[in-house]
Structures
1.
Amino acid sequence: MIGRIVIGQHTVCIDLKREALVAHLFGQLIPAAHDDDAPLISVEKPITSLRRGSETRLVVDGSDNLAEAGHFDPSLVKAIARGHVWFDELVGGRAESIAQIAKRECVTDRYVSQMIEFAFVTPAVIEAVLDGRQVPDLTLRELMQK
């Protein structure tokens, strides 16, 4: 369906194959042509490049509600979940210590301690992360400080 994607410094341009798009939208009721010279639909949008730790994220300008597009961050969700599970294990007596959890999970004590801090992130921030409404440049480090 995608003919070409060009990422520029301030824009992204996506060329869609018209026949493939129509076939997809109408459930393959219309046979898609496999002609590489078929007309394309070009969509161009302004973008902003954001650095998040070691990754770079491209954000399409004008998309205020990230949740509608489903842009939740799995690493943030995983950190919050781990923090809650490990904290509950300690409080409930299912784990004797942070060292025991670290050994079981093959991670360091420090990592477990850092993840447990996510059990204390405010409910509003957790809800935003789970709904994909967090700011696009939110990192795990910044989340630990909230």
2.
Amino acid sequence: MRTPVRILVTAGLLAGALAATAAPAQAAGGVVLDRGHVDVVGIAYEGGRLHLHVHDETVEPGEERDPEDVTFRVPPAAGTTVPADPSFGFLGDAGDPVWILPQVRNPDLLWPGLGTEELDEGVLRDDTVTVTFAVLGPGDLAIYTENAFGLPGDILVDTGDGQPDTFALPAGGHTHANWAFEKPGTYRILVVAYGTLASTGRVVADAALYHFQVLA
């Protein structure tokens, strides 16, 4: 079982925790998800703490899973190249290969979401939960939205820019974004979610380890 995180963790501590506690990639869980809608990062408030989980809607009815029991598979069909438009430069040089799980649904790929529907309004201060990513893998990971013109909007995660990969999500919300992997291989992603209880000012948090397998 995962141990709840009770303190606010800095980016440096995240990286150290990932290296120290992450299980070998081949030890990832036996449930493989490779297409359909799934909230990769689902966040709830249960039993006086935050709870990270996977909300799997690839099955009917949907099922809640422990992240460490799941391997998310990115097939070769997700492969494309970095566009020439310089606004996509955070993905690499124009023409470089990149594997993307898209913001817009593609029936042949995973449609990854970030879900906070289970966080009721008024529980957390400012109705906001903060999420931090630390990634260990063969390449960089970027999570970003696109606007109506197909250009990058919000860049939530960019492990190649040397900055903390931390962003806020509103309670009761649901977000879809592009998940772009720089190289094929296995990625281990340590996710920490934390917020402050509106009623007491106490920080509540949870951490979970996710596994993605990117196939060339």
3.
Amino acid sequence: MSKKDLLKIGDKKFKSRLMIGTGRHRSNDEMVNSIKASGAEIITVAIRRLDLENQSKKSILDFFDWNKYTLLPNTAGSKTTKEALFTAELARELTGTNWVKLEVIPDSKYLLPDPVQTFEAAKELIKKGFIVLPYINADPVLAQKLESIGCSTVMPLGSSIGSGNGIHTLEEIQIIIEQASVPVVIDAGLAVPSDASLAMEIGADCVLVNTAIAQAENPVLMGEAFKLGVEAGRKSYLAGRIQKIQQGKASSPTNKIAKQN
């Protein structure tokens, strides 16, 4: 992408508009290589799922050069505001970053985020100096409220986490994009690069992908494919699509070509 077309979150700028998760990979090699192929610069890590008691064992944090990537700790596994706040504080102490992807998910079946507890946790984290990127349902009202209290992005879901159902919330996401003045990151449910491309085509600023890459038959190739899908969608958005009309319109001239003397 153009050096001028950068994604800005907080005080940082990024060339890539693809964030990557580190869960559900079959091996650490596949994780590292697929993320490298994706061109992503922001990597999310679930802090609650790290084995912090066994200091001799490598954690996900040890497999990346954090001079090359931006770490985005997330509060996955938190079911309450209190748990999310604790996890965010633990992440800051462990990693030294004040960035956090906020997830509060009490629903173990559909993995849908709790809007009330997410909002309450976001307020407290912002007071504590965190850069908060909240994962939410595709709720335009909630997105506006989170932006108004100082969240650095809003991250509406496309469909349930890990479901591979693509974007089921297109109309709501379009409203969120229209109203937002912070980056809108589509997170959860994306299955194939065309899902990411669609998100970017309608004006999303970024997408976050995990399972679709981690569980692909060839994660490295899928990582590269998502990179291209995001880039194609962004270029399409910047280029400006044609307007929809109700009838056909010939793409070649309908006037007769004048006879040459």
4.
Amino acid sequence: MLSLGLGRARAGGHELLCLGAHSDDLEIGCGGTLLRLLAEERIARVTWVVFSGNAERAKEARRAARQLLGRRSGVRLVQHAFRDGFFPYQAVPIKEAFEQLKREVRPDLVLTHYREDRHQDHRLISDLTYNTFRDHLILEYEIFKIDGDLGRPNVYVPLSAATVKRKLSLLERCFGSQRDRRWFSEDVFRALLRLRGVEGGASEGFAEAFHGRKLVI
């Protein structure tokens, strides 16, 4: 299996752009990968953007991002308040938010939603990611839901058992507003990580998976 890194970092380190429609999306979809990148790569800057959230969920988003990313310099949290579930009907101001981001960041890696996700908010964020960042490495993370919309990913990031434990603990601690949802549970999250770990040949049996639609080697 071919292993690829982020390549040679610019002066100071790599820049990451992390895009999530809702407060827990990034932590669920790529939290373990981010923990690995922060531990193993020279990361100079992280721009972490959440596009929706009432007062409670916005507070959860800030708490979780700080716990995952730490208090390192170069981290910027951006919290928007677009209406959850209505993104396609608010597309103009969301597009304007992307245009503003384009002027502010030069990411080496963009993490965004899976383009075929059945949640309308997730799809719009993915579409606008590709519309805005045309010459960048983009990886689409996956989120298990009741829609049965998991795809066939082609990029795997193996995770240690310790990293999985940190990720699952963070989800449990930080997102109390979501605990009543039948898919928001440790066994569901662990099951998907285990499945992707088998597919990706991970040495400790766990991985997060992504869709890489265009990769230049």
